[in-house]
Amino acid sequence: MNQHLWQAADCLLQVFLNQLAMRILTLFILLFLSVKISGQIYYNTSGELYLGEIKLNTCEYNYLTPVKGKYRIPFSEIAIAPDGRMLGHIGTASSQEQRPYRICELDIRKNTLVDTLINFHYGSSSLTISPQGVCYFGISFAIISMDLATQKIRPINFYGSIPGDIQFMPEDSVLITQAESITPNPPGQWIFKIDLKTGSIDTIMAFPKENRIFGLATLWDYTAKKRRLYGTLGNGYNNIERGINDLVEIDLENKRLVTICDKRPLNYPIIWGMTSDDDVRTQFNIRMDLDPDNSSGRLVDHYLIDTLCLTTLPIADRDASIKSYIGGIDSLVVQIQSGIKHPGQEILELRGIFPGISTSFIGKEKIVLRNLGTASDEAFTDALRSIRYRIEATEVQDGERVVLCNIYKNGIKGDPAMTYLRVRAYARPFAGNDATVQGCEHGSFIDLYKTLGPKAYPGGTWYPALRLNNLLSPDQDTAAHYFYIVKAGDCPADTAQVTVERPLPFPAIGINGIRERQTQIVQLCAGDSITWDISAGLLSAQRYQWENQTRVPRRTFTQPGSHFINIEDYNGCTWVAGITILAANGGKAAKREKVTLRKGEVHVWENQVIRQDTLICRVIPRPGTCDSTYCLEVKFTTTSSRDIKITQESDFYFPGLLHPGEVLNLRSHTHSHAKVLEMEVFDQWGRVLWRGKDFSANDLSRGWNGQASANGLYLALARIQLENGTIELVSGKIVRMQ
């Protein structure tokens, strides 16, 4: 019993130690990669097909373009060419589209096509390029090669289904590919090595049938001094179910797969293709990179400079570097390789003196820098950065110039680094056509850039400066002329002028001199009318229309409401004016005096002697509110004694309009006094919004202030006690507005 327990414990311990050893090995590999492996692996994904790069030391997948873009070009595979261009194989998007397959140059920063290089007649999911510029394609059950320079195609001695990628290995001149088994191997997925010199095919290893290696790329291990092969392992063409998308190292010597990263980029299931700068490098002991961060758009060690109107150009970026892993370099040779348009007038020049380096010029087109024995890599790097390509011709011809840079050590020649100088000497940018616009008073913003025409060069500056980029505010940007100035590189600047005409303000149109964009509030007493006459203002109008779609020069209003008119003048400026008519405060207040007399008596009223039955009414003007009416009725009888009785409609009222900051309270036409016993304010649905008690009418510090209430119609009701003790109820409608 105890013996069995000890055996079980020993087995568990052995399993634990094996797992621990595997974790230590994995950790060692990750540390090994983070220290000793440099370079970048680029990839493209399935689904949205975005470009990105992998950092092995952190297993980060960084996209070179925004993931939420609308890039939909289905390139099936990518590879880097020896001249630093990223190439993609483009297939037909659907069976209905009869577009040919293409080999295209890709802009890795914008994720767009730069140019179609070759129309191709073969569909492929596999692509690799040798340092000599030969493309290898895996097509259905075959591999073919094509020279990029000559476009000559020839078959390779391999026939098998290749669902994944292929990779060229420069040191041995072999191709590595993953394919369905070919005889005499049993069914499954296998990795094969194809010797391009002898044509022999060797089987390296097998792995589960449901898996595929979709992308292949290489990086140089500077410590072990060997090329390492990496791939992405996935289960079939749809990795969603199992979620496998491991980045693995393919150990060709020991015939095994070592997992490096076990996560996928965001939500994309498959890395479709991979490539790296090291795929086309052959010499790693000495390295020269003219643009390490690839900011110019060219990959590997090359540099692209695209200029306007410059005739003196650097041949390397500011971050250019030279590194030697076998001691300091012996020499650096820089020469113009091709593209000269003005023989004898296109030269290389070295700016500065560098310690430990001797300089010799071979003609004007070649510079040789030699190490006197003490020069460091940094000194050669500084010298490289100081070299300029200068064109001395008076009328410079456009075109691409190519500069070749080589470094040497102990008879070893490093990989060439190329500078591609795209010279556009007199590509003067066009600022656009002069234009004239109407700066209407209170008008909307005008995009001045759009007035210059479709060929205007973007990114220029305005003088005087506009407040909002290219937008003119007619009320705030008040200059009569604006100049658009564009300048690119050292090109002479071009200028376009926009003249801003300022039409006269639209004349007053109607009630109390209403002008454009004004809405006047007027009050209307019961029984009165308001006439809005715009006939004088229409002398400047081209078109006009009221809010009710009518076109008449005058309108008469007898009821409260809102009205406006749209007018367009002959300059194209539009104008709007309006009125809001409110019922006047309190309506018409009236007094009625009734006098009863015996026959034969007389009544005197305002120097008028009245001897018979009479009814007289008189309108009494009240500034600021509606007029009131005073009526006298005199009646003679044979029996009644003299009697005088005066009746009056309520002298108290609620104002019909409440502005912010005002307080709603009862007011009196005759400034009479009354006590407000209780007052309530309701909304249109009868809900009580405010209630107050025991305060005086006409006191504008007491009452409802309307705060926290929206603009609109409200109802008010008050119970008041007059000075003679009479109790009255007063109600009214109130409009709260800004």
Describe this structure in words.
The chain is mostly beta strands and 738 residues long. It has 7 domains: 1-36; 37-280, TolB, C-terminal domain (Neuraminidase, 6 Propeller), CATH 2.120.10; 288-423, Immunoglobulin-like, CATH 2.60.40; 435-501, no CATH class; 511-583, Sandwich (Immunoglobulin-like), CATH 2.60.40.10; 590-648, no CATH class; 652-736, Sandwich (Immunoglobulin-like), CATH 2.60.40. Strand 30 and strand 31 (412-413) form a beta hairpin.
- The CATH homologous superfamily name of the largest domain equals TolB, C-terminal domain
Average pLDDT level: 78
Return the CATH architecture of the largest domain.
6 Propeller
Helix amount: under 10%
For the record, the count of structural domains works out to: 7
- Silhouette: elongated
Roughly how many Å apart are the termini? Answer: 96 Å
> Could you give a short account of the major beta sheet?
7 strands, mixed
Number of helices: 2
Radius of gyration, CA atoms, in whole angstroms: 46 Å
Transmembrane segments: 12-35
Keywords: Membrane, Transmembrane, Transmembrane helix
InterPro entries: Quino_amine_DH_bsu
